[in-house]
Amino acid sequence: MSKVKQLEGKGRLAGKVAVITGGAGGCGAAASRLFAAEGARVVIIDLNGDAAVKLATQIIADGGQALGVGADVSQAVQVREAVARGLAEFGPADVLFNHAGTLIVKPFLDVQEHEWDWLLAVNVKSMYLVTQAVLPQMLAKGSGSIVCTSSISAQYATPGEVVYNASKGACQMFARAIAVEFRDRGIRCNAVAPGFIRTPHGEREMRDLQAMGVDASEEAISQQQGRLCEPEEVARAALFLASDEASFVSGAQLFVDNCFSAV
């Protein structure tokens, strides 16, 4: 695990406040570390509050600035409280990374209504709640960058992932629509769309798909995208979209899939 003080940060987020949901594990944790290394004051919001606090403590020990907050981002009251804590600690947000998400791998006809509701709440409703809570801070400043974690699943369907595929399609269009509505008020919004990733989330997806008879072995995935994506690679893509280096990029979906979507 790279430490903030060991990373060769270029200050691409210097002086900025970044809110990251799902920021304590996998790609979210990689983004929390990287954004801090690039100079951001990072508000790490995660369902696992202990993990969020622990990661924030590590970032601070390594010379960065971070705050860990536990919250269920599918619940409006908890979202408002978490965002308010970030505002009180660091001031208004410049960057929002809507990364929190989960998945269900299950034959469509076996999916229960409560499972559909749960996954859409975590993957889609959370973007609405968090963005609605953070966006006014950006509008007051006249600028801001929002990044949402979509997936290759937004465009490439997989057996057993109807609910997940639908949620990521919604994520892609959410990012586009926010970009269009708020372009003339200084707000950019983009989606990052990873392929299969070497994280607990990604590895569980691979196991569950194989249990359904879908060939999602690492060997099979390597034939589609060369190898598994590393969480730091997703974080770097999100950093680009969040930073001023992407000042004329908005409404885009950036695939991080090593040609999966190109062939």
Task: Explain briefly what this protein structure is.
GO terms for molecular function: oxidoreductase activity. With 263 residues, the protein is of the alpha/beta class.
**Poorly predicted ranges (pLDDT <50, ≥5 residues)?**
1-7
Give the CATH class: Alpha Beta
Described by the principal axes of the CA atoms, the overall outline is globular
| SSE sequence, one letter per element | EHEHEHEHEHEHHHE
The helix/strand class is alpha/beta
Query: What is the number of independent domains?
Result: 1
Main sheet overview? 7 strands, parallel
Q: Strand content of the residues, in percent? A: 5-15%
Q: What's the number of helices? A: 8
Q: Compute the number of strand runs.
A: 7
CATH superfamily: NAD(P)-binding Rossmann-like Domain
Using only C-alpha atoms, the radius of gyration works out to 17 Å
Portion of residues within helices: 40-55%
CATH architecture: 3-Layer(aba) Sandwich
Q: What would you note in describing this structure?
A:
Keywords: Oxidoreductase. GO terms for molecular function: oxidoreductase activity. Belongs to the short-chain dehydrogenases/reductases (SDR) family. It comes from Pseudomonas putida (Arthrobacter siderocapsulatus). This is SDR family NAD(P)-dependent oxidoreductase. By secondary structure, the protein is an alpha/beta fold. The protein has one domain (17-196, 230-251): 3-Layer(aba) Sandwich (Rossmann fold). The protein contains 8 helices and 7 strands. It has helices at 26-37, 49-61, 76-90, 113-141, 162-182, 200-211, 218-225, 231-242, and strands at 17-21, 41-46, 65-70, 95-98, 144-149, 187-194, 253-256. Strands 3-2-1-4-5-6-7 form a 7-stranded parallel sheet, with helices on both faces. Helix 2 links the parallel strand 2 (41-46) and strand 3. Helix 1 packs across helix 8 (231-242) and helix 3 (76-90) runs parallel beside helix 4. The longest helix is centred in the middle third of the chain and has 29 residues, at 113-141. The protein is globular and about 50 Å long. 49% of the residues are buried.
